[in-house]
């Protein structure tokens, strides 16, 4: 039964045409459950009805012509209840709707199951039978399990089809929805920098030139066979001859008499090389999966391994031939710092990440670079994006595929308006950072990707409120040496003379992995990350601190920030190691070192309740609203399934921030905010109302935030705060902020 479920879901996922996928679905379910009818209805929320989209058992002429209202019939009842309905005599039920066109009067038994994705009913899957009986628990369980697995596949089926078939000649653009990761609008060409070398990421596509596809395939096979020869030679001294025979089997499978012949046949029928390989490999692998003999079932794994190796070489061959477009929209499963580094900044116009959320690391990097980004778009095959013309709207979280010229002109107008707004903000960048009533603010920048990418002149900032030292670690294939770190940190410190530069010690783990240091964990955000990792590896921590201290010589503007602190003992141990490093450097250079200020990131809720003790141990604290929100709300900010639950304007988060500010002021303990909330117009207004006056943000937001703060009075914010703290939802918080900005006639001048 499990094998049947898996096969049905795979077949639906692989079929690029939605109608064909649904037709195959109902036939497969009917056969698997040995029933007389299977049908699928999809929801149309604009028309408020379910449309019959495929059936094997009802009148085929009703497909696409019969609609059942959301509150009508048994189909509507299944959708309303959002649970299975199992009836022996469906035609006698009061909710049964007679629809002569579908010819279902001969069926008595009815089992309907909702297809639900992210709390939204996408459709209803039904089976029917003439005999009056209640479908068994096994049959119901099968249908429920199948509907759950199909939900995400069907949610993305139409978008998959749009990506695969869009062309500039279409009269309408295809639109996709994701999460707004970074503000802005851009028009460019999709470029998949690192395709996911996985058959699940390959969509079936046809090709116009079979000879060219065959040449691609033969070249990949040749490279793969050479790899097998090298592997066999390398392992010959470590494995018995019978074990090495697997490499001979692989060779034979690739020959024309075996898989090779099948793949050539598929290419001759018009499939591209990748699609032909996928179809053949998955066909044979499934055959082995269904065998009773355990040894033969394992051969399915061999087939997949072989296919994966050929696919890797096929993709590598194709990737090398792709030229970088002039305006790159970087599309990836998960955008990383190394990907960004491979695309020249002047060509990179936008980012699309199929996974991740608004506060994932990819989104943070996009905002730091001032590039629009859309996150958590879909589980679409990556390679289908390659070469597509895209409009990326980072404000709305929308992507338009192959837009017509009229739409491009409209979005180009919005891009021009954006540039005019930014020019208005930049016109006041040199003015004092204060409110309209003269209350001073310190506006600093978050940095770390590369100091040369910062767009704001250092003299217009209060310094660096957060320098992320992890990026130099991530960008290398090994840990950077002490001298390499000295040179890097010195460059940053010298760029902001006489202004504080707050350097956060290595903060990897969670969604920031080092390519040379394995950090794979079940729950990475609750695991071995930040200070926990570096205290377990003092050799890494000490080298970094030594490099910071040496870089700070004759400059004396270094501040050290400790991330992921959850316990006072971690503070004590970190301070001890900093003192040790200081003593070592002082002894080595025979000079007295300037003592940098030490601070702690407030991002783990536990440390918020130890503020008085913390204030006696360190010099300052900085609130990381991104992780603090994540931990307070128990939401993985990288998980698009729960992305809607992550919101820094959640009343609980705002009340926690207010209590923290009040307590810090009472202790006279310096506190700043370096999370993303400080760079949002609404967020910075609320933080200022709470009493925070030091903010660090991406440099691309600094001019806008300064422009906004110069137009508000503290007395106005003091009146706004009680209304905000009384709100019961993030939605109501935003409505209150919007109302405030409208009253100040500022809303139309802030696109965010």
From TrEMBL:
GAF domain ranges (all copies): 17-164
Entry's family note: Belongs to the PEP-utilizing enzyme family.
Cofactor(s) it depends on: Mg(2+)
Record flagged with keyword Lyase: no
EC annotation from Swiss-Prot or TrEMBL: 2.7.3.9
Enzyme class label: transferase
The protein's name: phosphoenolpyruvate--protein phosphotransferase
Keywords: Cytoplasm, Kinase, Magnesium, Metal-binding, Phosphotransferase system, Sugar transport, Transferase, Transport
Subcellular location: Cytoplasm
Record-linked Pfam families: GAF, PEP-utilisers_N, PEP-utilizers, PEP-utilizers_C
Main location: cytoplasm
Domain of life from the UniProt record: Bacteria
Name of the gene this protein is made from: ptsP
Reactions catalysed according to its record: L-histidyl-[protein] + phosphoenolpyruvate = N(pros)-phospho-L-histidyl-[protein] + pyruvate
NCBIfam families, A to Z: PRK11061.1, PTS_I_fam
């Amino acid at each position: 039964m499990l094998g049947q479920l898996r096969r049905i879901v795979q077949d639906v996922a692989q079929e690029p045409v939605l109608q064909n996928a649904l037709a195959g679905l109902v036939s497969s379910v009917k056969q698997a459950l040995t029933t007389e009818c299977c049908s699928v209805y999809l929801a149309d929320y604009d028309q408020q009805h379910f449309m019959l989209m495929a059936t094997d058992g009802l009148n085929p002429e009703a497909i696409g012509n019969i609609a059942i209202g959301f509150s009508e019939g048994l189909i509507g009842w299944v959708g309303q209840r959002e649970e299975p309905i199992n009836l022996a005599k469906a035609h006698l039920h009061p909710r049964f709707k007679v629809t002569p066109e579908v010819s279902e009067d001969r069926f008595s038994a009815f089992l309907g199951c909702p297809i639900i994705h992210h709390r939204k009913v996408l459709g209803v899957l039904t089976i029917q039978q003439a005999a009056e009986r209640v479908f068994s628990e096994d049959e119901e369980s099968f249908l429920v399990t199948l509907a759950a697995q199909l939900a995400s596949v069907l949610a993305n089926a139409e978008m998959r089809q749009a990506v695969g078939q869009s062309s500039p000649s279409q009269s309408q653009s295809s639109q996709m929805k994701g999460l707004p990761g970074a503000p802005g609008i851009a028009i460019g060409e999709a470029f998949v920098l690192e395709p996911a070398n996985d058959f699940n990421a390959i969509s079936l596509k046809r090709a116009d030139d079979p000879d060219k596809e065959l040449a691609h395939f033969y070249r990949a096979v040749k490279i793969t066979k050479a790899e097998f020869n090298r592997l066999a030679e390398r392992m010959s001294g470590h494995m018995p001859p019978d074990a090495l025979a697997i490499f001979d089997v692989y060779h034979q499978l690739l020959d024309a008499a075996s898989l090779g012949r099948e793949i050539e046949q598929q290419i001759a029928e018009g499939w591209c090389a990748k699609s032909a390989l996928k179809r053949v490999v998955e066909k044979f692998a499934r055959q082995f999966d269904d065998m009773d003999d355990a040894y033969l079932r394992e051969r399915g794994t061999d087939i997949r391994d072989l296919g994966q190796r050929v696919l890797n070489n096929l993709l590598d061959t194709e990737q090398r031939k792709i030229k970088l477009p002039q305006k790159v929209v970087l599309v990836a499963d998960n955008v990383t710092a190394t990907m960004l580094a491979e695309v020249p900044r002047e060509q990179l116009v936008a980012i699309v990440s199929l996974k991740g959320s608004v506060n994932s690391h990819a989104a943070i990097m996009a905002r730091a670079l001032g590039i629009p980004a859309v996150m958590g778009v879909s589980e679409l095959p990556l390679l289908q994006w390659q070469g597509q013309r895209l409009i990326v709207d980072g404000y709305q979280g929308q992507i338009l595929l192959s837009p017509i010229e009229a739409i491009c002109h409209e979005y180009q107008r919005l891009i021009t308006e954006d540039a005019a707004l930014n020019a208005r903000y930049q016109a006041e960048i040199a003015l004092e950072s204060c409110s309209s009533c003269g209350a001073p603010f310190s506006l600093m920048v978050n940095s770390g990707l590369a100091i040369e990418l910062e767009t704001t002149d250092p003299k217009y900032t209060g310094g660096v409120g957060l320098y992320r030292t992890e990026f130099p670690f991530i960008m290398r294939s090994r840990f950077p040496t002490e001298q390499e770190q000295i040179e890097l940190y010195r460059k940053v410190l010298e760029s902001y003379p006489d202004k504080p530069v707050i350097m956060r010690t290595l903060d990897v783990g969670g969604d920031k992995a080092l390519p040379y240091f394995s950090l794979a964990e079940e729950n990475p955000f609750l695991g071995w990350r930040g200070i926990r990792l570096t205290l377990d590896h003092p050799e890494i921590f000490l080298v970094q601190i030594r490099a910071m201290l040496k870089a700070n010589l004759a400059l004396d503007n270094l501040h050290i920030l400790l991330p992921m602190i959850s316990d006072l003992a971690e503070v004590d141990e970190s301070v001890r190691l900093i003192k040790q490093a200081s003593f070592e450097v002082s002894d080595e250079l025979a000079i007295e070192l300037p003592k940098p200020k030490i601070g702690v990131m407030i991002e783990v809720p536990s440390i918020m309740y130890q503020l008085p003790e913390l204030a006696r141990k360190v010099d300052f604290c900085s609130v990381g609203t991104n992780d603090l929100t994540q931990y307070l709300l128990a939401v993985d900010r990288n998980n698009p399934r729960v992305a809607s639950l992550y919101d820094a304007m959640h009343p609980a988060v705002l009340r926690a921030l207010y209590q923290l500010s009040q307590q810090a002021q009472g202790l006279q303990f310096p506190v700043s905010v370096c999370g993303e909330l400080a760079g949002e117009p609404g967020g910075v207004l609320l933080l200022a109302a709470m009493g925070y006056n030091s903010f660090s943000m991406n440099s691309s937001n600094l001019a806008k935030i300064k422009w906004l703060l110069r137009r508000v009075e503290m007395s106005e914010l003091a009146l706004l705060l009680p209304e905000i703290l009384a709100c019961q939802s993030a939605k109501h918080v935003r409505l209150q902020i919007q109302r405030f900005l409208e009253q100040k006639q500022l809303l139309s001048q802030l696109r965010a």
